[in-house]
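As the work plan foresaw, our protein records have gained a structure token line. A representative record is set out beneath this paragraph:
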Amino acid sequence: MSIPVPAAQPGHRAYEDSVRLDTGGIVTGLREILGAQLVAYLGRVANTRSVREWAEGSRAPGADVVMRLRTSYYVAGILIERESAKTIQAWF
């Protein structure tokens, strides 16, 4: 008889990634789900060039922006488990 392994709780992976990934990983993940323009809006920058530079690591956003992006990544990660990227973009 085998002991059943409990399923991972919804959002667990999103949380783990949101606290462990570096800023470039967070930005890259958000771009994949939300698109560069929405990430720029969340990061309070006027253009997607800054978002690209954050993802590449050639430029770093301020600490307040990093926290906002990490929180957004966590929320988007939870939602992507059940919804399409287009739906999540509309919600954001």
